[in-house]
Prior knowledge:
Radius of gyration: 24 Å
Strand content: 15-25%
Distance between the termini: 31 Å
Shape: elongated
Bound molecules: zinc ion
Structural class: alpha/beta
Helix content: 25-40%
Amino acid sequence: MANRLKDDLVTAGQYGREPQRTVSSYSQLDPDKGVTRPTGTEANKKIRDFCVKSMVAAGLTVKIDRIGNIYGRKEGSKVSDGIVMCGSHLDSVVNGGQFDGALGVFSSIEAVRRLTEEHFENERPIEVVVFTGEEGSAFGFSLLGSAVLAGKIETDDALMQKNINGQKLKDALEAIGYLGDFEKQLNTVDCFIETHVEQGPVLYNENISIGVVENIVGYAWVTVTITGESNHAGTTPMKMRKDALVAAAEIVTAVNRNANDFADTQGSGLVGTIGKLVVFPNGINIVPGKVELCIDIRDGFEKNLLMMRKKICTFMKELESRCGVIVDIQMSPINTPAHLSPDVVQAIEGSTKQFGLSLKRMNSGAGHDAQNMATKVKTGMIFVPSVKGISHAPLEWTTWDDIENGVAVLTQTIKTLSKLDRN
Ligand SMILES: [Zn+2]
């Protein structure tokens, strides 16, 4: 039975790989060649077609909505509303891994097959969902399918988004045969569960089977321009310089130091990064006159984001007099963290314990469709370990044993949540 899910994932994993070939073990991975299947591509069509075929074979009734989300439905024995929804996405980043997204979709189909074989009577309907355009690798807008469902963006506006070739999402979906004709209403959904690879090193390093996600982190971005004075590197004495890069260097270390302190003192998973820095004029013999940099701060709680941002901004302003520069600070609106449902978290935790598996409550540092769903329905996420914490790269992998643990926990969680009187 376990091999059935493996077969699905191996078959699905060949789509978007050049040359097309199946990979069923870590040693078969090519470090340079992962899977590439942005929304609307031929590879995206192939994996969608394979998924729909699997859904139909599992006895699910398939429908496509206007944004190309796919739903496979198993009726409930008592009610037609209050759906237990589970799933993820099938698109990928350029040169990504075969399990990111696909794992959550095919595990959900396998869960339904197991329920049917056990003659389990789900009182609520169960729907397996495939969200369109999770990665934002094609249409410049991530978590697109779930954003439409949650009402964050209008369907018509989303369909007008263009890819790099100037093609509208509407036309791209039509070309691959996935432009549906109805609008899904989330008030028919009771809860949502997304199974996903962790995409980080925590579970793998700590040798834990299941991550039970409590929060999906939000982020604060700060764009900073430091203006000093460009001058001759040979003739300008040290005491007379207004070196913008020296000030920037202090900011880089301050962000790193404060994020570390924060994690130590607040017990928070806060992370802070400066990954982008542009130096002007960027010449070997010129004192840098201007630096632009971007600060990325992430945490599961908005108050922590605000606290850290304030600390760094205060520090940056103090640099003005100390380094003789002007620091211009632009703050983007905070992308708020999503808090998942204690009810669903508890159901996942209960299922994990039932199988005697090790678990850890944790935050997700990456964005997921679950964060949009969480704004409207009770939502939970099941994480399985990523080998060496690698993700969005060809060497992304999860062991078959860990995948089996994930689907077992998912199946049991669906059972629990599909009962009307679980409370
Ligand atoms: Zn994903």
